[in-house]
Amino acid sequence: MKTAIGIDLGGTKIKAGLIDENGQILRELQVSTQSTKGRQAVLQQLDDIVARLIQDDTVGGGIGSPGIINPHTNRVIEFGFNIKGWHGSHKTASLEKKYPHLQWRTENDANCAALGELWQGAAKGLSSFVMITLGTGVGGAFYSQETGIFHGAHSLAGELGHVLLFPGGRPCNCGQKGCVEQYASGTALKKLYKERTGTPLKGSIFGMIDQDADAAAIVRDFERHLGLFFVSMTHVFDPDAFIIGGGLIHEMDIWWEGVLETYTKEISFGTKTKLLPAKRLNEAGMLGAAWLVLKNGGL
pTM above the 0.85 mark? Predict the structure, then answer.
């Protein structure tokens, strides 16, 4: 049976796995991204991961990366600001030289998460869905049976973390002000808490809401902002469902009901779009990245 290496490249850590054609994760590992050391350090991490996971039946590998990705050239076109110097990087060049007989593919990290959920998770059987990943940043992807993963004319489609929630609001690394990512990501929650209290956030803000009024207020805002974001995205995409993943989904028991409350209160036209938690959670990105090679999917 063929295997492929699936790599989920995050702002703080890299998750990778050796995955077979049935979607079984045979081996997996996790290492620090070392993003502050620049792109060469990150690219070396990718090379080391492949060397540790590759075996005789491996046909190639896929990488889910932050940023606007050209999946035909395996290059970061824009953004990727969570990794220093990531703009313009060619992530598979070294791997192509070392393993020229294998296939190497790169996609946006949220697109990979969407493909993983489609193949082995919460999106199985859906004709269309929007994937939202809530982690260091906010990622997005749109899938339909007609288009597959929709990339848009300039590979920009799905950068939903940079939809403007509050025009002229908090500055974003992308150059805009008021992006969703500045209000509904793990990084945003840390910044908001420090600005409000003058104290760095230690641990999870969601675990503090019963003892800390400032934390509770920030989480209530997070719930409302996310709910309103889903209202807007429903009118844009009208999908069967939103699949919500990323690191923050692990604490959904704290914030999920608040998001649903805002969404159902504010949405018009009696929408039938569902909000569903991802099933494969931190595995979705790896699965989708491997699927790019094993199933030749995503384009």
Answer: yes
